[in-house]
Amino acid sequence: MRANILKRKLALRVKRKRRIRADISGTEVRPRISLFKSNRYLYAQAIDDATGVTLASVDGKKLGFNASKASAAEVAKAFAETLKAKNLTQVVYDRNGYLYHGVVAAFADGLRANGIVL
């Protein structure tokens, strides 16, 4: 029973992810911020989809932060500094199929609070 529920949840997230990615794309000037959330950590990348290159990334595990709302704001702050160092202030936010609440929303708010335009 449990395996069926997990498969269904993953299938629904992948379906949302494909629907979102059909609409958004990143460029060199305005990259796509792709967020990945595991049960323990957060990871994010700034991607130029035109060339398929990762411009910047942040790893919550290496920074010592877990996947909580407070930690998401700190990871977003570190990522915003990395983006500003590369002169990237406007981005497109890809929530990667996750629902926009909790950690995902806290990460986006943290980026906005540190001067990144979503």
UniProtKB/TrEMBL annotation:
The keyword Ribonucleoprotein applies. This is one of the proteins that bind and probably mediate the attachment of the 5S RNA into the large ribosomal subunit, where it forms part of the central protuberance. The gene is rplR. This is Large ribosomal subunit protein uL18. Belongs to the universal ribosomal protein uL18 family. It comes from the Bacteria. The keyword Secreted does not apply. CDD domains: Ribosomal_L18_L5e (cd00432). GO terms for molecular function: 5S rRNA binding; structural constituent of ribosome. One of its GO terms (cellular component) is cytosolic large ribosomal subunit. One of its GO terms (biological process) is translation. Part of the 50S ribosomal subunit; part of the 5S rRNA/L5/L18/L25 subcomplex. Contacts the 5S and 23S rRNAs. It holds the Pfam family Ribosomal_L18p. PANTHER family: 39S RIBOSOMAL PROTEIN L18, MITOCHONDRIAL, LARGE RIBOSOMAL SUBUNIT PROTEIN UL18M. HAMAP family: Ribosomal_uL18_B.
